[in-house]
């Protein structure tokens, strides 16, 4: 029995060894094929290159040989600052020659709308409201409600689809308290399609205090009083956005007149004086915050990667409807959705002489990258476009290279 078993088991061992040898040879061969295929896939797939993106931003801003008088950029990755730099002057020689830095305040213009939209999302949730609810009940009782206003929603304002009548100039008049009151009295007289109007967000200078006043523990708020709405709007923003990020004293009032950033045209020589922007308190909501590039980058990071400012659901809703954000051409969004907000103020429609500011924030969730660019100059010849937002998109899209 023992002999038979040995005779029987010996041939089986030999076959098993052969089979195992063939099996492992097959595995080794196919593994090489898979590895080669994977390597081919890697080789043929472009990847984002941070170095190229950064250099693109610099090159594209300076492409026309007429760099801003002063400008700065930040690039963050997953909420952490990766690259940053600043160039030129906050004030040129004629105005006292002060360097522009990453920590120099600048009027961020309409990027302010993004911050206002964050506050709106917070207060709607706190009041058990949605963006689809109407604004009429939250307006001052003394205001005359014009046609269509009773059907005007928070979303309509946040998307610039209100149909209200206003202009994007003479801000002290059109965006002041009386101007807002007059706008509501005129009512919805245009088609409720997208029409970018600063008044849509200036109205939140009244609506944010009104929503806040309805919450338990809120301070005394009189939305019938212009000065009180200004103060309470700024107070809410400070306490519920900037204080949460340890950013003290962020507001719509500039630094001291003798050291504040001034605003130029790229063609201005060293002897051309710049524009001074004073307080925007009386016309805030849609513009006017004075912040540094680093402060703007910090808000981006906390918005995108934490729930300190908004919940994930609120953030997703803001992105879905581009609330307080730019509406971009999907054809430009080659590597997933891009989200951002532009800002611009100028003294003239002629870019060769207009003095002013340009700002832009952009978030690229697909790579965890976000970017801030601020410049105290109009009239800069950008690479292939007049849009700062488009320039950043191009710099990003062209930073995908073969590994």
UniProtKB/TrEMBL annotation:
<keyword id="KW-0378">Hydrolase</keyword>
<dbReference type="GO" id="GO:0016787">
    <property type="term" value="F:hydrolase activity"/>
</dbReference>
<feature type="domain" description="Beta-lactamase-related">
    <location>
        <begin position="99"/>
        <end position="174"/>
    </location>
</feature>
<protein>
    <submittedName>
        <fullName>Serine hydrolase domain-containing protein</fullName>
        <ecNumber>3.-.-.-</ecNumber>
    </submittedName>
</protein>
<dbReference type="Pfam" id="PF00144">
    <property type="entry name" value="Beta-lactamase"/>
</dbReference>
<dbReference type="InterPro" id="IPR050789">
    <property type="entry name" value="Diverse_Enzym_Activities"/>
</dbReference>
<dbReference type="InterPro" id="IPR001466">
    <property type="entry name" value="Beta-lactam-related"/>
</dbReference>
<dbReference type="InterPro" id="IPR012338">
    <property type="entry name" value="Beta-lactam/transpept-like"/>
</dbReference>
